[in-house]
Amino acid sequence: MLVVADSSPLIVLIDIGHIAVLPVLFGEVIVPPEVLAELDQPRRPQAVRDFTASRPSWLLERAPVAIEPIPTLHAGEIAAISLAQELNADLLLIDEVCGRKAAAERHIPFTGTVGVIELAADRGLLDLQDAFARVKKTDFWISHELLDERLKLYQAGRRPL
Description:
Strand content: 5-15%
Order of helices and strands: EHHEHHEHEHEHHH
Distance between the termini: 19 Å
CATH architecture of the domain at 3-114: 3-Layer(aba) Sandwich
Low-confidence stretches: none
Shape: globular
Radius of gyration: 15 Å
Strand order of the largest sheet: 3-2-1-4-5
Structural class: alpha/beta
């Protein structure tokens, strides 16, 4: 499976201690240089910067040949969308609403951090309730009520796609 990632899902998964689910779920994950630069910014938690300093072999860097200008998006989001489109990726990992909208407009399949966590729970790689509790303790901007609702649906076996 060919997967491209923006920075946000990587940051959150590192923050909650579950970055190791990515290679189990997807094998390799490809990121553009702009995403690596975002991960390495001084404002990022030390764990995130340590991750980029000793990047695992499953995280591959690849620059898109061409970058399509997409208004309102940051450089990492634009590069990740451009790379996913160029590679005809099976999946783009992206959280930002405008980025997801841009991906949908380009017919790029995508999921976000919550989708990755739920998929990992489906595969028995983590406990969803614990993972969502950890997400709530980060600075990831997501409604706690949304996470609670997703957990209830998951536990009832009625999780929407």
